[in-house]
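Hi,

I'm pasting everything inline rather than attaching a file, because the server keeps stripping attachments. The sequence lines come first, and each chain or strand is labelled.
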Amino acid sequence: MNFSEVFKLSGLLCKFSPDGKYLASCVQYRLVVRDVNTLQIVQLYTCLDQIQHIEWSADSLFILCAMYKRGLVQVWSLEQPEWHCKIDEGSAGLVASCWSPDGRHILNTTEFHLRITVWSLCTKSVSYIKYPKACLQGTTFTRDGRYMALAERRDCKDYVSIFVCSDWQLLRHFDTDTQDLTGIEWAPNGCVLAVWDTCLEYKVLLYSLDGRLLSAYSAYEWSLGIKSIAWSPSSQFLAVGSYDGKVRILNHVTWKMITEFEHPAAINNPKIVVYKEAEKSPQLGLGCLSFPPHRAGAGPLPTSESKYEVASVPVSLQTLKPVTDRANPKIGIGMLAFSPDSYFLATRNDNVPNAVWVWDIQKLRLFAVLEQLSPVRAFQWDPQQPRLAICTGGSRVYLWSPAGCLSVQVPGEGDFAVLSLCWHLSGDSMALLSKDHFCLCFLETEAAVGTACRQLGGHT
Amino acid sequence: MGDWMTVTDPGLSSESKTISQHTSETKMSPSSLYSQQVLCSSIPLSKNVHSFFSAFCTEDNIEQTQENVETQNLKLGSDMDHLQSCYSKLKEQLETSRREMIGLQERDRQLQCKNRNLHQLLKNEKDEVQKLQNVIASRATQYNHDMKRKEREYNKLKERLHQLVMNKKDKKIAMDILNYVGRADGKRGSWRTGKTEARNEDEMYKILLNDYEYRQKQILMENAELKKVLQQMKKEMISLLSPQKKKPRERVDDSTGTVISDVEEDAGELSRESMWDLSCETVREQLTNSIRKQWRILKSHVEKLDNQVSKVHLEGFNDEDVISRQDHEQETEKLELEIQQYCYLLEEKERLKEEWSLFKEQKKNFERERRSFTEAAIRLGLERKAFEEERASWLKQQFLNMTTFDHQNSENKPHSTSNGSPVCMSKLTKSLPASPSTSDFCQTRSCISEHSSINVLNITPEDTKPNQVGGEYTNQKWSVASRPGSQEGCYSRCSLTYTNSHVEKDDLP
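And the predicted assembly:
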């Protein structure tokens, strides 16, 4: 595993281009585009204000930079650096901005979700969409970029509109039987739309592309409901994580639950491998003393290494007792992700925040549990193979694969607190983001990682 | 003396007779008679007493009678004591059992009380739960109502704000772009018309249909494979069960009897099933039922074997039984492996079938091309022949013409021609290696080339073999396509060489 040098970053804004050739990062009001292999700066653009959001167009030719405070969106071209485009929403304000799948339209959501303005980069036309829903995930595009589903709310009722992205024609418009729609998401095959309700009501509705209701699923009443949802990449399964600490898997043929995964704090089954992160005692030399040395001008700090140990079952994990009289309690399944081949599902139960559960979808049972020393901040699957990268806010990044797992220290002076990470589409490298910096981590081939796992003490 | 009361006793009847004879003569005093009667009546129970009485009461037996009476008294006394003790014991027992009963009754009462209490508690809890649920429901409705009210207010605010924003005619809300970018797919934008709407609908339904068809195909394939596996399993199970009939110790004769009949039945079924490869309801049911039947037979067989083994363990160690069970287990494992292998084999078979079909296609393509080549070569040969003949005739003409007026320039021409021809021949032969088309044509013999029509014109000596025209031309190398400009000159200069029909490379510079 090789690490690149550390570069400046602000706002955790670092994104790979969809074709995998470039890496865009933001430093305050500057947009820096680097080549992925050499990390040389290819382009440098300056925006008018601090950038809050960047997004590559699907053909990797343009980047949009959104500045919400000023209500501005600036679009830059990679091929023609002199080309510029500035969209000013003025008094309407701006809360969100995104590309359409053809890379030639920009959808701006104005303040208070008054409307969505569709600006075209090809023509002078501007379209308006009224009454968009103010929710976590109100717009979703199909993977092939043909259709967009938009959640709307009129007269205290929820609706979903489906638009054809090529000409922005309204294809379907139907109401949904939800109290307060929180999110919508297309299945990867683009034929089914999952719509789920607020956490006060457990309800997930499945609509076909032509607006027919295929099925409605509700596991229980009254208690807090759905917290997270994920489609499997093959569109065969829909995983629904809820506040009761369970993940329910629905199958695409009958849309009924085929199994539920519980997340108890005590694990008794000896077939499950439990990896516990343990601190390796730092090797103290003669000059090292126990008090923390001054950062300025001092040598490198004695960074404590950690490794994974296989814990013998029965294992009990650290739990967090949630405060019951506050909203948005830290219980339930907050993070869900399928591996790209749909064989594994990684989950996090928010009241056991240090652990990541990995489920085997072929056998529909728990496969492995990883317990870290600090709460897990983010995890993401390698886009090419079943390999999971985890970060906990410390200066280490963790990798799990069915062969084993390993923990790697990010080298460098001072603490590089990894707050987020994102994979390159080839699965060969990964960007690690901290508050003010980022670095690239280049992974060797699978064989090398396997030997590294064995060397570092990861077990199968 | 008076009349004696004769108390009859069969044993002493003779004595009593004598006594009565005795007494009939003598008269008793009434008092003695009376005492006699009293004595008789006071102890009516004991027979012995009676017998004694009837026997005695003479002066001789008074002592004996007294003794007897005493013993009788003692006996009676002890009996009384015994009876009294029994009585007291029974009384005690009765008391204790009564107390026990009371205790148990008490406990029963207490438990019933507790039970009632618990029931009551349960009922209370249920009521409370119901109440809480009602409370939640009512709160939810109230909350929803309030939320809706707030939302309406909010919507009004938004509308107002929206009006203000739109009315302001903000010149600032605009896009400032250097130049418009072309569309990603390079096409021009189209107007939104009814046609486009219909087109969009069509597209959408097409996508949905494709998705459904794809899924249905997947499911059908899965079904077919599973059915095949089930059929294989059935066959295996049948073959596994039928040989057991030979062993005399087996007690599964009944089941094997049914197995045999099943085999006959299933043979018929199999042929029928192979014809109906569709997912027919009845076929499916038949298959699953027969599998279940076989499985049940197999299970009972295994159970019986297990029983045998356990009996043997109790009775004593018997090698054969243990081995047979192990054999059975091994067989089942083998069966499982075989089933797995069958699945793999099926997959492999499918793959091989695909590859075979690909091969066939390629082979067809090869044949086609080869045919076209040969046809072209034949055509070429014929054309060539015709061309040669034409040329020969033309050259003859030319030669005749030339000889008629070339008498003056007779020195120059032969040189030029002789020089010209090798030069142009060198040009021709040199051009050949340079042209990639001839090498291509050589290669097309072994592999497929898509531009076969162009390459046909370029021939090498080996390739002219199928040409039925005479061997005169076999040594010619000429590329018709590559050097059009020089051809005419070559033709005129080549006249002499053609009539010779022989080219020697060694002559060329």
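The longest helix of chain B spans residues 62-167.

If the labels don't parse on your end, tell me and I'll reformat.
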